[in-house]
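Tokens for chain A. Residues wanted.
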């Protein structure tokens, strides 16, 4: 498996994973098109011999980077793909000169929180009723940005 830049032709498959992972508040196809066109954006996919299994994206205005999205196809979760995508995003942010990354995660999404904590993110705030269904969000920040590429073939 490789982690490579997302291309426009990946969008239908990425959107399929998006709908499976975020049924209540998934992004539209147009949103992915806009993100790919953004000069401050880095979007990548996990590609297993032509099969897209996950994706992630950041927005960076140095010194701050924002993890916009991260998702792995439900059939392929728990195999280390999310960790590799996050490592690549941290690397992209560093290449753009960022020294911190911030993200929002649902308060009940403990699996994702564990992934982020393992990479060095800490919870710095809670936003009440942040999501359309009334769920709270945790704001997590990683600072400084670690180099997690050691031992990870991204
Ligand atoms: C969160 C998500 C991206 C993780 O990707 P993944 O490929 O399944 O995660 P990995 O296999 O790389 O796991 C890395 C670490 O994350 C943690 N983790 C991930 N999923 C977990 C779960 N369901 N329960 C507990 N810990 C979990 C573990 O610490 C794990 O390390 P370990 O296996 O050594 O214990 C994936 O589950 C997903 O797409 N979920 C739905 C969308 C989502 O919630 N995105 C994040 C939005 S903020």
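Reply:
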């Amino acid at each position: 498996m490789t982690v490579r830049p997302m291309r426009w032709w990946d969008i239908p498959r990425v959107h399929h994973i998006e709908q499976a992972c975020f049924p209540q508040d998934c992004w539209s196809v147009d949103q992915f098109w806009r993100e790919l066109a953004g000069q401050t954006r880095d979007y990548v996919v996990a590609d297993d011999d032509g099969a897209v299994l996950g994706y992630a994206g950041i927005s960076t205005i140095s010194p701050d980077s924002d993890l916009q999205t991260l998702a792995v196809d439900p059939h392929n979760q728990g195999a280390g793909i999310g960790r590799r995508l996050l490592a690549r995003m941290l690397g992209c942010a560093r290449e753009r000169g960022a020294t911190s990354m911030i993200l929002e995660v649902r308060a009940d999404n403990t699996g994702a929180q564990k992934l982020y904590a393992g990479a060095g993110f800490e919870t710095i705030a809670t936003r009440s009723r942040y999501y359309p269904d009334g769920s709270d969000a945790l704001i997590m920040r990683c600072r400084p940005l670690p180099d997690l590429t050691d031992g990870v073939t991204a």
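The chain has one domain: 2-142. The pocket of coenzyme A is lined by residues 21, 70-72, 77-83, 105, 109, 111-112, 114-115, 118 (CB under 6 Å).
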